[in-house]
């Protein structure tokens, strides 16, 4: 069963901002090569947790390990692709210039750089808009460009915070196809989402509420355990809400 190694290990992690407890004693292992979904309502703590995994914040208590190394770690940055909830793009530059800037940061140069830029823009279906200024991009296009940037350096672990917000269903489908292709290449993906049909596409899910991890399992396991037909209903049962 456990033939794959855990590439993420979250150990008794808590986080507070002043008196506000945002994460409460979270322990979780995410295996190499799986698509792991973090599902929960707004304010559940998903972003706080994935920011720690990306090395942008630290727990108040407990530890996060990526590839058996404690985070935050500068050495690990190249092995991670992180897509934040709000797009961190240079609006006054074209998409290509943005991609070139981030490529340089990752040490991608020359032919390899041009090749990767072409590949990632094809993947997110923005090949026709490479020279357009980002300020002229729609919200969904910016999300896709952020995803392209996260993929540039071919990271082993992708941490994607609500990657499909503002993206229409057709494109959402093609982006999920890209996720499953990346998984087939052996990559690990952590995806936060509110969207229930996306949750069903994950190999395993962690359900979060009020800073707690209230259940972990495959979508099928979670439905079976709660005797429900949908993840949405399963969530309500785990959360103690009467149906
Ligand atoms: N820097 C901060 N200072 C104070 N409180 C914070 C900070 N960052 C997050 N919080 C609080 O932590 C809680 C969890 O926020 P977080 O963004 O992790 O939730 P989320 O599950 O990602 O929600 P959403 O789906 O809306 O993005 C919220 O109550 C938020 O206000």
Automatic annotation (TrEMBL):
Annotated keywords? ATP-binding, Nucleotide-binding
The UniProt record lists the keyword Nucleotide-binding: yes
Q: Which Pfam families match?
A: ABC_tran
Query: Which GO molecular function annotations are given, in alphabetical order?
Result: ATP binding; ATP hydrolysis activity
Ranges where the ABC transporter domain occurs: 8-235
Per the record's keyword annotation, is Nucleotide-binding included, yes or no?
yes
User: InterPro entries, from UniProt?
Assistant: AAA+_ATPase, ABC_transporter-like_ATP-bd, ABC_transporter-like_CS, P-loop_NTPase
Domain of life from the UniProt record: Bacteria
Task: Please report the name of this protein according to its UniProt entry.
Answer: ABC transporter ATP-binding protein
């Amino acid at each position: 069963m456990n033939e794959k190694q855990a590439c993420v290990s979250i150990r008794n992690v808590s986080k507070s901002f002043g008196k506000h407890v945002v994460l409460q004693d979270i322990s979780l292992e995410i295996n190499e090569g799986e698509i792991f979904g973090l599902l929960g309502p707004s304010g559940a703590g998903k972003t706080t947790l994935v920011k720690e995994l990306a090395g942008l914040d630290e727990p108040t208590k407990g530890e996060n390990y990526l590839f058996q190394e404690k985070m935050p770690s500068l050495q690990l940055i190249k092995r991670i692709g992180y897509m934040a909830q709000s797009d961190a793009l240079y609006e006054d530059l074209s998409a290509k210039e943005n991609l070139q800037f981030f490529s340089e940061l990752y040490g991608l140069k020359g032919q390899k750089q041009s090749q990767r830029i072409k590949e990632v823009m094809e993947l997110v279906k923005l090949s026709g808009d490479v020279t357009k200024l980002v300020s002229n991009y729609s919200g969904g296009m910016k999300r896709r460009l952020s995803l392209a940037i996260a993929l540039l350096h071919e990271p082993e672990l992708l941490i994607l915070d609500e990657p499909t917000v503002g993206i229409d269903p057709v494109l959402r489908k093609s982006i999920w196809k890209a996720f499953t292709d990346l998984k087939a290449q052996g990559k690990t993906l952590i995806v936060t989402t509110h969207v229930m049909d996306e949750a069903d596409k994950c190999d395993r899910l962690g359900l979060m509420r009020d800073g707690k991890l209230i259940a972990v399992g495959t979508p099928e396991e979670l439905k079976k355990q709660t005797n429900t037909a949908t993840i949405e209903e399963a969530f309500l049962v785990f959360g103690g809400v009467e149906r």
